[in-house]
Structure formats: structure tokens, C-alpha cells
Amino acid sequence: MRRLLHRLLLCTLLLAAVGLKAHAQAADPNHLVDVIYGHKEGVALSMDVFKPAKPNGMAVLWMVSGGWVSNHDNINAGYAQPFTSHGITVFEVVHGSIPRFPVGEILKDIKRAVRYVRFHAADFGIDPNKIGISGGSSGGHLSITTAATGDDGDPNAKDPVNRVSSRINAVACFFPPTDFLNYGKEGAHAFDNPFLKGYHPAFGLQASATEADKVKLATELSPIYALTSKMPPTLIIHGGADPLVPLQQSQIFCAKMTELKVPNKLIVRPGKGHGWPGIESDIAELIAWYDQYLK
Fold first, then answer.
1. What is the domain extent for residue 98?
2. Counted domains in the chain
3. 204 lies in a domain?
């Protein structure tokens, strides 16, 4: 009897906890938690959606990513708040993480998220032609690579979401790696960089890889080599003293966009490193960029 009462008490507490969670979510109808945008290898891919009180039709996918690792615990309502206050709907996207999923696979997740958001544009109250993408570091890399390699979707796909375009309409991000073949200076391979050596498995680089293998993979994962005149307008903010992702990465990317006559802007924060105190205030620059190119 005592054991039965104990079990009943546990069940009551669990039900109460579930009820409290449901109540908390219901109390904030503008925050949708764990919206599943896809599945792969038994893993559900999800995002949180932050809806503005007065939506203006613009949407931003925010990459929840650091070192190509993504975690629901790093979803940040504080990052979404400046956007939603401005009428922008924010989708904080959690992707598959290294080492289980290499960077090439992660990029597929992000494109899936873009397709999902565009497919459900009416449900979310957004304009499917006003979608931006943002993130920092690896999140910046995923943002500009997705924008550079967006496609129209597969018209023959069984899943209707996959028939939809993954193209981005504007980009605004922080300190992204852009060229793994010229990392910090011309001819310096990122795979030989002390900081990135630990990421070899994450990039899908085998121990037996030849120099030709390294060059091929570095090229495939570097958004600068996918750049065309179809690249959407792009803003990058970068610290002038970044020790992890050299400022040079953003400089050469923006120079290439200028050659292609793609609207772009590089804001350099002198003396700042890989992130800085008060970086959240720079979200105002991102919003201004989206105002200019999405409105």
C-alpha cells in the first residue's frame, strides 16, 4: 500500500508539472516551443517561434549555433525581443550537432528549416518573400552558406515542404568563417589552423584524407566559392581583433560580393574579439538592414 501511494504521489507531481508547463506555454501565446520542422535518423529537428504583437510580415531565422553545436538550452528570448518589438517574427533554429552530424549535414537542416517556414508562412503570419537569416560564428557561417546555396526545391519530392524554395531574401550575421582555403591569409588552410584541428571529424574529414581531399572539402564548405550575383543583400559585423575567426574572412567575402554587385556592408568593431560585451545592442544594426532589404 505504501509503495502504491508513493507511485500515485509521483504521478500526481508529474501531472502537475506537465500542467504547469502547459499553462506557462499557454500564458505566452507569442512563444511557440519545440515546433518540429523535420526528422532525420530518429532525431526530431525543432525551433522556437517568437511572434510579435504587431507583425509586419518580416521573418528572421536565428541560428542557435556555436562551434556547429546546437542546443535547446541556448534558445534565447532576449535575442528575439528586439526583433519582435519591431514586428519581426523570429524562428530560433536548433540543428543537428557535431560530431554526430558533420557540417554538410547541418546545412541540410537549415535549408529544411527555411523551407518549413516558407511553406507555413500563412500559419505564422509572415510574407514568404521576406525571410532573413542571422547567427554568429558557426551560426554566421550557416547563415551565409545557406543564403549562397539556396535552391528552388524539388518539385518531385514526396514531402511538400521539400518542394518549397530554401532561398533567403536578406542576411545579417556576426563574424562568420567564409574561406577555409585562405583562413587569415592567402594559402593558409583552416584545417591546419590550431583552433580548427579539433574540428576535423566535424567537417567529415577522415584521418586518411589526402591534401586533395582536404582542399575539396574546404572548398565545398566555404561559402565564398558558392557566391553568385544571386546572393541576397548581406550585412556582416566582425570584431577587429577576433582571434578565432579572422576579420579577413569577412573582408574577402564582402569584397567578392562587391565584385558581383551584391549589396553588402561590413561593420568592424575595432579592438573587439570573438564576441564582446554589449553585442546584443548590435541587433539594432541587423534590424535596420532587414528594414532596408525586406520591407
1. 30-179+222-294
2. 1
3. no
